[in-house]
Amino acid sequence: MRTLLGLAACAAVATTTLAADVPVGGALLRLTVSARNAERRAAAARLDDAAITGPFGDPRTDGATLVVHGGVATGQCFVRIDLPGARWSALGRDGARRGWRYRDPGGTAGGVRRVVVRRGRISVVAKGGTWPCTLAQPERVPLTIVLGVAGQRWCAAFGGTVATNRVGRFRARNAPAPGSCPDGDLTMANLNLLHGLFCPAATDDCRFPDRAALLYQWVLAAGCPDVVTLQEIRQQLTTLVDTLPALCGGAYQAVYDAQNRVDDEMLLTRVPVLDVEVLPLAGNFRHVLRARLDHPLGPVDVFTTHLGAAGENALEACTPADCPAECLAGQPITQHECQGVQVARLVESRADTATPAVVGGDFNQDPTSFVHAQFTDRGWADSYLAAGNPECDPGTGVGCTSGRIDDSLVQLESPALNEVERIDFIFVTPAPGCRIEPAGDPDGDGTATALFANRPNPFALACGPAPAPICWPSDHIGAQLDLDCR
């Protein structure tokens, strides 16, 4: 049975507001919809604040981005629109000092007709059937509006005086400046946690409680990412759930849907969950878990999976009995390769938003494989490489994620890397305004685009056989992602 294990309110982890973020007061936000005529949709916003001041960046090179966020549940207003640079012009021929104007009488970019940025005021006007908000449900309050221009973001949160909030109408005014702008990053970590099924019985699944505790130390050290995807989850679920309230101030809830109860996927999230599904893959043992999250960026689909290994006939050729038609259309491929095709097609089929989708998991194939190409050939980024990190060196283990012995404690209790291949990935679909943060955590939020849990226990003076702290949470090293969508 599918469960959302709500262990605490998904409290936001404190972050530092960047200098380029400017919270401002909202004078007015008005949204209207006609049930009879989509062309009569309209929006008008005015942000008034002395903090709106120059010098103003030039939007003519990279354009600007407008985000209106009243929730991403069905019927609520979520807008993310890129406003092209060709439509911007300087006020008084001095944009840096006086401001900028966007004009598009036809509303070709999401219905936005006019935007003005000047000292003390930002105004936005949109209308017509291409404006995305249907207002089929009341909006989540506060409803936020963010305008990003040349690396700077002005943001308002319309709580204040909400005069109308019903189907088809929203009107609010006099909203004070929020304490900070919405988080402009999507952060994530992924790890195959090692179920310990083949470990000696006396070792408690290769010291699983100790390994789970070390995992949570790594999550905290990584800045409490928005989402953590895990594979090889079985009966140890209780250990993970019981200790979860102590992680990152109780910010996470767990998403788990029991399938084979031996090698399932689980997702930890500190942002609300809108929808969950689990789909079987070829062979009917492996699965992919998908959750749609109500992220500050908008609706974000997160997928996690663990593709088959040689021991379960995954390398045998597909047959009509165990592979769907989508995998049999071309030359015969293995069940494992078919699973890669299925996951990639599932991601494509759910990609109905302007926000990115992320796919984390143990794919049991390296970057030269057919499976890896199913994702990168679609233009999706292998985030670790895209950030400029080095490829796996089997000789040293640097950059590698797999290779340790998984049926004893010998290498889990050794500080040596003992990894020889990279088979664990986070793939990212392209989205307007989003970029993978370069290696090294340049924004300083604690989550780098890099490997995850890639050093022997750094939270203890030494690690090794019990009673010493364990060295590694898993036979795998994971991956982590910082996706900047400002």
Please supply descriptive tags for the structure shown above.
single chain; 486 residues; mainly beta; Deoxyribonuclease I, Chain A; 2 domains; 8-stranded mixed beta sheet; 8-stranded antiparallel beta sheet; 7 helices; 27 strands
Provide an overview of this structure.
This protein has 486 residues and is mostly beta strands. It has two domains: 21-175, no CATH class; 184-484, 4-Layer Sandwich (Deoxyribonuclease I, Chain A). Helix content is 12%, strand content 33%. It contains seven helices and 27 strands. The strands form four sheets. Strands 1, 15, 16, 17, 18, 25, 26 and 27 form an eight-stranded mixed sheet that branches. Strand 5 (64-69) and strand 6 (78-83) form a beta hairpin. The model is unreliable at 5-19 (pLDDT under 50).
Task: Outline the fold blueprint.
Elements: E1 2-5, E2 21-23, E3 26-32, E4 42-48, E5 64-69, E6 78-83, E7 88-90, H1 95-98, E8 99-103, E9 112-118, E10 121-127, E11 143-149, E12 152-158, E13 161-166, E14 169-175, E15 185-192, H2 204-221, E16 227-233, H3 237-243, E17 253-257, E18 264-269, E19 273-280, E20 287-295, E21 298-306, H4 325-328, H5 335-350, E22 357-362, H6 370-376, E23 381-382, H7 383-386, E24 424-428, E25 435-436, E26 450-452, E27 478-484
Parallel strand pairs: 2-12, 15-16, 21-22
Antiparallel strand pairs: 1-17, 3-4, 3-14, 4-10, 5-6, 5-11, 7-8, 8-9, 9-10, 11-12, 13-14, 15-27, 16-18, 17-18, 19-20, 20-21, 22-24, 23-24, 25-27, 26-27
Radius of gyration: 24 Å
Please give the domain count.
Answer: 2
Q: Strand-residue fraction?
A: 25-35%
Main sheet specs: 8 strands, mixed
Q: Identify the CATH class of the largest domain.
A: Alpha Beta
Helical fraction equals 10-25%
CATH hierarchy: architecture of the largest domain: 4-Layer Sandwich
CATH topology of the largest domain: Deoxyribonuclease I, Chain A
Mean pLDDT: 90
| Individual helix count | 7
List how many beta strands DSSP finds.
27
CATH superfamily of the largest domain: Endonuclease/exonuclease/phosphatase
Distance between the termini: 38 Å
What spatial form do the alpha-carbon principal axes imply?
A: elongated
Instruction: Enumerate the spans where pLDDT stays under 50 for 5 or more consecutive residues.
Output: 5-19
Q: Structural class of the secondary elements?
A: mainly beta
